[in-house]
Amino acid sequence: MEAIGLVASVIAIVQISGACLKLSLKPLGPSSYKPERLQSLSTTLYGFNGNIRNLQTLLEIYEDDQARLDTLNHLQEPLMKCHEALQLLSSRLQSDGFFAQYIMGSKFDKKFELCLRVLNDAKDLLELSLQCDQRILISAVESYIRNVAEDTRDIKAAIKQNEQLIQSIDTRIKQPSDLAMRLHDEHTQSVARLESSIRDVHIDIESQESEGRLREQLRHRSLVLNWLSNVDFRSNYLDALRKRESGTGQWLIDQELFRSWRDGPVRALWLNGMPGAGKTFLSTAVVDHLERTSTCPVVYFYFDFKDSVKQAIESMMRSVAVQLETSLLHNKVSPALEQLYSNCQKTGSGRNPTLDEVTDLIIALSAFAPKFYIILDALDECENREELLEAITTLKNSAVNAKLFVTSRQEQDIIECLTEDDFTPVTILEDSVNHDIGLYVSSILRNNIHLRRLPKELKRHIQNTLTAGAKSMQVDMIRPLKRPKIIREALEKLPKNLDETYKRILLRVSTEDEENLVQMRRIFAFVTFAKRPLTLAELAQAVVVEIRGKQFDEDAAFYDPKDLLSLCRPLVDISPSTGLLGFVHYSVQEFLLSNRLSSAEGAVRMFALNDGSCHMEIAQICLTFVGFDDFADGPCQTFKELQDRKEKYPFLDYAAEYWPSHTKHKDVEVAVSDLLLKLLVPQKNAKLGSVIQACDNPNINSPSCGSWGTALMTAIHFDRQDIVGMLLDLKIDVNVGGGYYYTALHSAAIMNDIHTMKRVIQLGANIDFGKESWRQFDDRLPLSMASSFGCSRAFLYLIASGASLCNVPIESWANDLALGIDYKDVSKEWALTFADELSSLGHYVEVVVFSKGLGNSELLEGGRLMLEGENVSFYFRAKDPPV
Fold it and tell me: pTM value?
């Protein structure tokens, strides 16, 4: 490729990828493809756009360096494919017509998938090319520095000779001559040129070092922030922002009390109101207003009854800390967070920070901001309100620069705490709610294809009726009606409260679609009691499972998963940001779980939910699904096969991961005992291998179940302690083995899983398996396997349990163990502690320690091998027991 052609191609791709990025939030219309894959478009485009811009910058720098540009010729073909893929995406994203939105969407999936794959592959190739070029540049700079150093020495030698010559001339002539002056000038100029060259080299070196430090700093920052919190805190805000009508909540923004909170002395506001008053939309209005008008950091968190992660106070506090950290420091980690991360990583495998530690971190970060805002929505949806209210009190009292805005229902514990803590209450009044509802109803009347054609007088009547009664949800009862007379009659009979509204909706959907009543109830059960929110594709398979069936009946499934929404709207909807299903409001779930519905008369009572029956039904569905003959072939042999299986059976992920959780609820395990035994009892059940592989979700080819041995060994390897516990409770033969690691005890030893080792030994595991044919360095012995994999805790537990050393000196075992441990995990403290623990078990060893990098003749004694840790060189040797 000619240099000018490469530059032009890159510029064209930068332009079109930027255009696609701006259009990526635009709805794509119907698509049979997975929503989560469609959501990856923005992420893919962001990553690709960054890499292609980096390449553009590189080409501008190397504009006159033809040799360097020639090294990038291999990018021609990938860039051409990227250009074609981006053109295809751009044309799709710019399409607004009916045909493009509703017909071409479903035909576009394969091309869409290909485009994403091309862009992801190209992104990785560009990253690799840029890294290679960087290494070449660094090597060239180092070579240049060496050459300059050699030239410098030569010049200095020449200067010294000149100085000696000048001194010789000066001794011969007492008066300055033209020759002496000329030599002096040349000498001065040479020194100046040399100093300038050295300065330029130093500047280049410092620039390269600074760039490297910045890249490492950003990588470390991303790692630490992701460790602290990876909760998607923006999805609830974005969903509410999309649904919110312009002007909603303006009455709150215009209040003198709000302005006093935003700019004045008021530090804490508590917005409260009845269910359905629009508190989440008002929180969103506040966040949107502050982000557009304030230069101070704005952090927020929406508690969410639909997502168990977002019901935890730990999730909220850690998210607030991450948002505050990223708002205040853009390129590095704050000292407070760095210290917290370091403390939590000292345990080796690491731990999560405690709630008190995160609270202290937020308080420490608050010192960097003269003022910042914290908006917390739906406190009443937090699972541990007592801890939450304590944390809010601590933040208010300790983070003096924080302005807090919280919302909730008027529940007694919240009223008492926030009133005592001087939160100024703002109660949502009916007039304010009616104004916001009026905006929503007006939008429906303008945009609905049927309602917008109604007579103006009738639309005013609808507007006034729904607004005056604060009945925004009841617009869904009017939406499908087409005759003015029927609409007027419906307006006269509107429900008086939320309970009556929900009853009418349930009655309507049950009478309009009687053949799907079971599926509707299952939808409500999964949305309420699932361990995580489900996608539309997952739920569409789950609700049609025939309990205790043999295989999945594709004829019973929904042809299009989107048809599922028609069964349960307007009570259930899909989040545009996450693609996950949930109730439209917390009050829907409360009603379905309430005695008001379970004691109601008529058909609607069948939709009443309770904890026991729902977990039992979900457990039966999950166990039936993973036990289908569709998975009788066992684990997939390649990652591609696993991807194809999960694409065909999207519910497999959830069923494989969470069936143990649902069976643990009261009385459920007894009710599903036949399904449990069918799955767990066979020692080498291929279906159980498929289940364990599915929830491991590997990124590389995964070995078959046979490679790991029995189902118990497979569960140990993938750290499925719930399944391990169930299998061991059945008192299975733990010495049945096979595969890579011989027995369950071997598998537990290499996982450093002491709890499982203890249980299998109690059940009769052979602690000296393979001793009869054992040779040094043969890994058939559990002790040898723990040693080879550097599993010191398992090694010590086996020694303490009486494992045989097979006539091999203890110091040889100890040195072999140290070789198996990661270089960075080996320290002088570890070696001394390990030696003390062995000695306490009656196997006496000591540690011979040397300074890092220094040799010692004693190392050669007996052919001993010096062990290298990050900051230590050492080896173990036997010592005499104490007298």
Answer: 0.56
